[in-house]
Amino acid sequence: QVQLVESGGGLVQAGGSLRLSCAASGRTFSSYGMGWFRQAPGKEREFVAAISWNTYYADSVKGRFTISRDNAENTVYLQMNSLKPEDTAIYYCAADPSGYGSRQSAPYRYWGQGTQVTVSS
Questions:
Q1: pLDDT value, residue 101
Q2: DSSP reduced 3-state for 34
Q3: Going by DSSP bridges, is the β-strand pair 10-13/115-120 parallel, antiparallel, or unpaired?
Q4: How much is the pLDDT for 27?
Q5: Neighbours of 92 (CB within 10 A)
Q6: In this structure, what DSSP letter does residue 32 have?
Q7: Which segments of the chain have a pLDDT < 50?
Q8: Which residue of 34, 44, 45, 90 could cross-link 114, Cys pair, CB 3.0 to 4.6 Å?
Q9: Torsion angle defined by CA atoms of residues 57, 58, 63 and 68, in that order, rounded to the nearest 10 degrees
Q10: What are phi and psi of 60, to 5 degrees?
């Protein structure tokens, strides 16, 4: 199985920036769609961003967040700028073996442990 390990979460002030990293095991990373999801307390998990042959973003983060990947290092990143308190959540990295990079969670077969992002007002 593919293992995903997130890092880079923490506490930042509103308007600040943070970069999350997700390191993946295996040598099939380049063919997978990769996504970021987040879940706030008491809320459902929601889509944030995905990357395959293209990139896709939730409307709530478009223009502020950037997803990228380094296939040689089997790592996907989420650069988060202009952070808002409503961005506070646990952020999860996920891998979609189909390569599509869906906005829905179901196609993602592998998930990381999550990393906490807290944005203070």
A1: 87
A2: strand
A3: parallel
A4: 63
A5: 23
A6: S
A7: none
A8: 90
A9: -30
A10: -70, -20
Element holding 115 (H helix, E strand): strand 115-120
What pLDDT is stored for residue 28 in this prediction? 64
Determine contact, residues 10/117, Cβ cutoff 8 Å. Answer: yes
**Which two structure tokens, joined as six digits, stand for 118?**
């807290």
Cα 29 to the center of its chain, rounded Å: 15
pLDDT in tens, 75-107: 999 999 999 999 999 999 999 998 888 999 999
Task: Return the exposure string of 35-46: e unless at least 16 CB atoms fall within 10 Å of the residue's CB, then b.
Answer: bbbbeeeeeeee
Closest to 95 in 3D by CA, of 38, 23, 39: 23
Structure tokens at 42: 């008491």
